[in-house]
Predict the 3D structure of the following.
Amino acid sequence: MMKLTIDSVINKSKYMDISIDGYVPIDIKLFDTIGNVPLYYRLGDGKKSLLEIAVLPENGFLSAITLVIINPECVHKVDTALEKLLVDSSGTPVVNLEIWKSQNNNSFSQRFIDDFDFDIQAIVSPTSIMLNIAKNEEEINWIKCSDRFYVGINDKKNITSMLLDKLTQEEISNFFEAIS
């Protein structure tokens, strides 16, 4: 089960860059690290899927999300738009840093937490990509990070999903090129 928990959401102006190209399926930058080495939460199955979530150690801001690889068998294409989102709040998610505090962060390798027991699932519509990164049977509450990017959390505030919306046909095509 995904252990990355959102403590709060702050309304702070942010840098946001979404890149979907033929090499890296999805790369989202919410904050420039400005020389700071982020903490990483890496998840997937450890072989055919890997998602890296970067968190700034000084404040817990969600900094970057990179879908490095995904198993093409876990990508599901749908012909209709995804359901309407229940947006709970808007702004920048602040991640709880406790899971890193139990480790000695002086070593570079201790900045990484690996959770390799889940197949990341992607649902692709004509204009959006939703990544399901945790088993979730509960209602998802969404944090609107920008007009194009949302983070989904369950009632325990654990991250369960991510949604890229208002994508172009070129971005959708680039995604499929990157995963093939």
Remarks:
- The first helix runs from residue 98 to 101.
- Helices lie at 98-101, 169-179.
- The longest strand covers residues 62-69.
